[in-house]
């Protein structure tokens, strides 16, 4: 098993060039035009693996631009077209496309959540499955029973919800050296994330109102009836009378500028966040993160150094003034080192080596 310590130490597998399939979900293009967490990680993996000499084929939507070797699994990404409900059948189509071409690869790396287990069970070619979402649901234990090897979690907390599985843990990494840093910042707070109750945008409004600051909200249009109901029935009533600016879904550059010009980023997510890409993006801009102590966030945010972690909203409100004395340059330097794409791919190359029966070398 690849240890977290080996990955954090920057262990590399010293692999020969491999023919690798990276398999993305059909909901967003790779890279995504707006915000798509899994697809951004696939994009980073693809480029760093190619830089290291591997031949990478991408299975993804036809409007993806990340790869010269692209196998389209749907003509255009589904989520921007408002076709989220079409995800399951096109995920099956994605699995089918990989099964038909599997003999062309030395290794297949799937990012399809539980659907990727089909590939691992059906193929002789080694398969690695990264789980980017929740795995703590009641039905997950049965699906993971007698699971094949090569299962990767993106945080220790995520893996801990299914302790019977021999997980490898490889934290996400992003190319963040381009992230802007602004000495002069507004007094406003920001929230970046889905308009969903588990992400806590209404709670972000409550925090901002309690300390008398503006809240700038960057969020996708609600993608499901549940999200639309939450926006209409919970978020909008909470935002009335508060200083809230809704920005919609921002592209990468505008999102980075939002982080860089904000006093702090609010992440009052009351759910087991598997990782938290928003946190590392904010920290790369030197902007502290104010978050509930949930999921994988304590593995990213160093309490008192990078921001504030609390057990409830009252604690976050009470401790938010600590942000004023935090070293924003040190925040940036730490996250660039801890969550680089190079460290992430070091970890994945070690996992690949284990799946292929190759000896890893430093």
Give a short synopsis of this structure.
The protein is an alpha/beta fold and 362 residues long.
Report on this model:
This protein has 362 residues and is an alpha/beta fold. The chain folds into two domains: 187 residues, Glycogen Phosphorylase B (Rossmann fold, 3-Layer(aba) Sandwich), CATH 3.40.50.2000; 150 residues, Rossmann fold (3-Layer(aba) Sandwich). The chain is 36% helix and 15% strand. The protein is built from 13 helices and 13 strands. Strands 3-2-1-4-5-6-7 form a seven-stranded parallel sheet, sandwiched between helices. A six-stranded parallel sheet has the order 10-9-8-11-12-13, sandwiched between helices. Strand 9, helix 8 and strand 10 form a beta-alpha-beta unit. It is globular.
Task: Considering the chains and any ligands shown, give keywords for the structure.
alpha/beta; Rossmann fold; six-stranded parallel sheet; 13 strands; 36% helix; 15% strand; globular
Task: Describe the secondary structure blueprint for this structure.
Layout: H1 4-8, E1 19-23, H2 37-51, E2 55-60, E3 70-72, H3 87-101, E4 107-110, H4 116-122, E5 127-131, H5 140-144, E6 151-153, H6 156-160, E7 168-169, E8 189-192, H7 201-211, E9 215-218, H8 225-239, E10 244-248, H9 252-260, E11 264-267, H10 277-284, E12 289-292, E13 307-310, H11 313-319, H12 328-338, H13 341-356
Parallel strand pairs: 1-2, 1-4, 2-3, 4-5, 5-6, 6-7, 8-9, 8-11, 9-10, 11-12, 12-13
